[in-house]
What does this fold into?
Amino acid sequence: MYTTINETGILNNYSKEPKLYYAEFPTKEQQSKYAFQGEVAVLFLASIVLIALGVS
It folds into this structure.
């Protein structure tokens, strides 16, 4: 932790900055997994809405 003291004696603490890295583009396998998860989410939400409409 990086600490400084100003003229009036007040301490200022600064955290360490994390090491930066660039994100990598997902592989074809990851892309297909994300697409499948999206399809499941859409079906799940659609079923919830249809059930809610049917009950009301």
